[in-house]
Give the backbone structure.
Amino acid sequence: MADDTASFRERYGEWALVTGASAGIGAEFARALAARGMSCVLSARREDRLRALARELEETRRVETRVIPADLAVPDGAERLADAVARLEIGVLVNNAGFGYAGRFEKLATDRLRAMVQVNCMAPVVLTSRLLPSMRARGRGAVIVTGSVAGRQPLPLHGVYSATKAFDLFLGESLWAELRGSGIDVLVIEPGATSTEFQDVAGEVAHAGEPPERVVAVALAALGRQPSVVSGWMNWVTANANRFLPRAATARVAEWVIARQTPAEMR
Ligand SMILES: NC(=O)c1ccc[n+]([C@@H]2O[C@H](COP(=O)([O-])OP(=O)(O)OC[C@H]3O[C@@H](n4cnc5c(N)ncnc54)[C@H](OP(=O)(O)O)[C@@H]3O)[C@@H](O)[C@H]2O)c1
C-alpha cells in the first residue's frame, strides 16, 4: 500500500478535487483517493456532510482537506469553484456531482431539467477547462468523469438524464484521445444502478444496486489504462448488447425497463 500511495501521488500530484463528495460515489472517491495519500478538496452543497467527511479523512488517513461548498446548478457555480481552488495544485479532478430526474418528459419541471444539464454537463466542461492548463504545464494529472450506462442508449422516461450521460461519455473519451502521451490520464466511469441517494433524488422506485466502493475501485483500477470502463459485468453486457439492436428496439426495451423503475404517476 505504501508503494501504491507514493506512486499515485507521484503520478498525479498532491491534491484531488472531488465534486459531489457529500454522498454516494463521490464520498467513496474521496475516501479511496485519501487512502492513496492524496489531499482532498471536497465540494457539494451540503457543507455539514463535507465537514464530517473531511474530519474522517484527516483522522484516518492523515491527509490535508479543504471543504468548498458550491452549487453547480447555478450558472457561475463551477467557475467559482475553479476560482476557489486556483492556488492548489489539483492533480486529480473528479467530475462526479450529478443527479437524475425520472418521468415522462412533459411531466418534468423545466427548471430542474435545466439544473440537471448544468450540473451533469456544464460543470465538468467548465472545471476541466479551468484546471487542465495547469495539469498540462506540470505534465501530469488525471480527469475522471462519472458517466453512466444510462449514456449508452436513449432512456425513455429518463431522456434528459441519459442525454447528459452520453455527453459525459463523449466528452471524456474525446479528452482521453487528445491527451494521450501528455502525462494526463482521462477516464469515464460508467456505473449501473448503485446504492446511493441517487434513486431517491431522481424520484425512482427503489431497486438494487452495486456498492459505491466497488464502482470507485473499478474506476481507479482502470485509470491510465483505457478511456472508459463499465462497472459490473452484467452492466457491461447490457450496455454493449444495444450496439447490435436496431435503435427503435433499443429505445423500446429501455422504456420497458425504466417504466418499472418509475412511479405510476410520473409515467
Ligand atoms: N447511483 C446510481 O445508480 C448511478 C448510476 C450511474 C451513474 N451515477 C452518477 O454518479 C454520480 C454520483 O451520484 P451518486 O449515485 O453518488 O448519487 P448521490 O448519492 O445522490 O450523490 C450525488 C452528489 O452530487 C451532488 N450534487 C447534486 N446536485 C448538486 C449541485 N446542484 N451542486 C453541487 N453538487 C451537487 C450531491 O451533493 P449535495 O446534494 O450536497 O449538493 C451529492 O454529493 C452522478 O453523476 C450520477 O449521475 C449514479
About this structure: The chain has one domain: 2-266. The chain has a mean pLDDT of 96.
